[in-house]
């Protein structure tokens, strides 16, 4: 299922950040309206996100050869104060959300298939 209607278009859009969810986590978010994140997010106390330039490495590192994933896009600026940029892999700053991921904040969601051993990201990310 491709989702592209969660929020109306706005004149001012901030930087998009991305969350990779397993399809069952995606379905839970859709049915419950919000989630504390995947098990790793709950354990770490925040929801892990990536920028467009970080997403492929995140997928390869944490979701290698895993099919049945969804890629969610959110406007980082719209998340406000609960979103913090903190150093992680290689000292890069990663977006971390200290609060629930809400369905209302998802701008779009698309499947993240694996083709020839690599995740194929949607064209709109490029």
Structure, described:
The protein is α+β, with helices and mostly antiparallel strands. It has one domain (16-125): Protein of unknown function DUF952 (ADP-ribosylation fold), CATH 3.20.170.20. It has helices at residues 23-32, 39-44, 52-62, and strands at residues 16-22, 34-35, 47-48, 69-75, 83-87, 93-97, 101-102, 106-111, 114-115, 118-119. The strands form four sheets. The protein has a three-stranded antiparallel β-sheet with strand order 1-4-8. Strands 3-6-5 form a three-stranded antiparallel β-sheet. Strands 2-7 form a two-stranded antiparallel ribbon. Strand 5 (83-87) and strand 6 form a beta hairpin. The chain is globular and about 40 Å long.
List the helices and strands and how they pair.
Blueprint: E1 16-22, H1 23-32, E2 34-35, H2 39-44, E3 47-48, H3 52-62, E4 69-75, E5 83-87, E6 93-97, E7 101-102, E8 106-111, E9 114-115, E10 118-119
Antiparallel strand pairs: 1-4, 2-7, 3-6, 4-8, 5-6, 9-10
């Amino acid at each position: 299922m491709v989702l592209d209607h969660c929020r109306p278009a706005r004149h001012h859009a901030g930087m998009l950040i991305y969350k990779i969810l397993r399809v069952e986590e995606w379905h839970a978010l859709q049915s419950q309206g919000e989630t504390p994140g995947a098990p790793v997010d709950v354990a770490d106390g925040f929801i892990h996100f990536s920028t467009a330039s970080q997403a492929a490495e995140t997928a390869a590192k944490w979701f290698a050869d895993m099919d049945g994933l969804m890629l969610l896009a959110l406007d980082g600026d719209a998340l406000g104060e609960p979103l913090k940029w903190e150093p992680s892999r290689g000292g890069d700053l990663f977006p971390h959300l200290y609060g629930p991921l809400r369905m209302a904040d998802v701008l779009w969601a698309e499947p993240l298939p694996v083709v020839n051993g690599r995740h194929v990201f949607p064209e709109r990310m490029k």
